[in-house]
Amino acid sequence: MFDDKKLERLRARYGAVGGNEIYDSHFQKVAASVFKDSDKRPPPYAGVPTLLRAPHRPDFSEKTHDDLDVALLGVPMDLGVTNRSGARFGPRALRNLERVGTYEHVFRMAPAAELSIADIGDVPLSSRYDLAACHRDIEAFVGRLVAAGIVPLSVGGDHSVSLPILRAIGKERPVGMIHIDAHCDTSGSFEGCKFHHGGPFRQAVLDGVLDPERMIQIGIRGNSEYLWEFSYDSGMTVIHAEEVLAMGVPAVIRKAREVAGEGPTYVSFDVDSLDPAFAPGTGTPEVGGLSSADALAILRGCRGLDVVGGDVVEVSPQYDPTTNTAQAAGQVLFAILCLAASALPARPRRGAQNVREP
After folding, report:
1. Looking at the domain assignment, is residue 262 inside a domain?
2. What's this model's pTM, rounded to 2 decimal places?
3. Residue 98 dihedral angles phi and psi, to the nearest 5°
4. Which of 260, 287, 266 minimizes the C-alpha distance to 275?
5. Using one digit for the tens of pLDDT, what is the confidence trace for 57-88?
6. Domain membership of residue 86 as a residue range
7. Is the residue at 326 inside a domain?
8. 246 in a domain, yes or no?
9. Is 25 domain-assigned?
10. Where are the beta strands (DSSP E) in 8-100?
């Protein structure tokens, strides 16, 4: 029963303290990374917009930062789309978000308080018109990150950008994958091009950088199932959107963990995995998809997997004046960051940084 004695206790403890004065030891550690000498925080709408409000380190093109644990980067390229274009504006849309991070309540972690994380800008692309050239640029850029021991988390761009990223990450050994999408993206070449966003994972398997038997595809639906026999023939595990509903999220998580196993794992999230009611701002919307809550629950359930990289793709903000699509994608990016942070070994030579509270 709440009585005057309890009220007085609360008044004595909280009545005259600032918002930065926190007693719980866990929350105190998070707050210490946000606040300095007062309860003042930078306004979320000021300063240079960056992915997840991370520090801006745009000079990676000139030099490698060996103090970084995780690099956030944009890949503003949508030359591989088969329907509506516009995903080239995805990185900019996610940078303009104000309310994603710093703390993830399910993981109970503030990754930027423990690791060195930065937005290193966009991949420098040599051409706005040549898809193959863009893929070479992406592979080379991400390859430098991988060689430096930095985990790359990318924002596309269309889903074709996953292929050059996987070529860089899986160069030494093929990786497994948690793939959340409306489409399997394992079709073949069309009209003389095999680099479009409908087939990156067939090509990644054929290139030897993706292990299909350690790949699970979640949320699949739509009218193109007949194009995706490669998924089944190669040994990928496919869970359709209606099966997610029938199985339930906990069963999907168990299957994902079983398929991925203990090896290095990449996470690829296409925002069209979400029902258009949650994410209309995408190039190939498919009704009957996942909810934002279910997608986040599946990702959070993958904690403990050896996540070595990830991407969020296909955000086309011009089709969504509400910004809900970007909001969902930003929260997914933060969840993938937490997965990667959980998988990173301790690196005492790399110091955590102070974070900007949105």
Report:
1. yes
2. 0.92
3. -110, -20
4. 287
5. 987 766 666 689 999 999 999 998 888 989 99
6. 56-343
7. yes
8. yes
9. no
10. 70-75
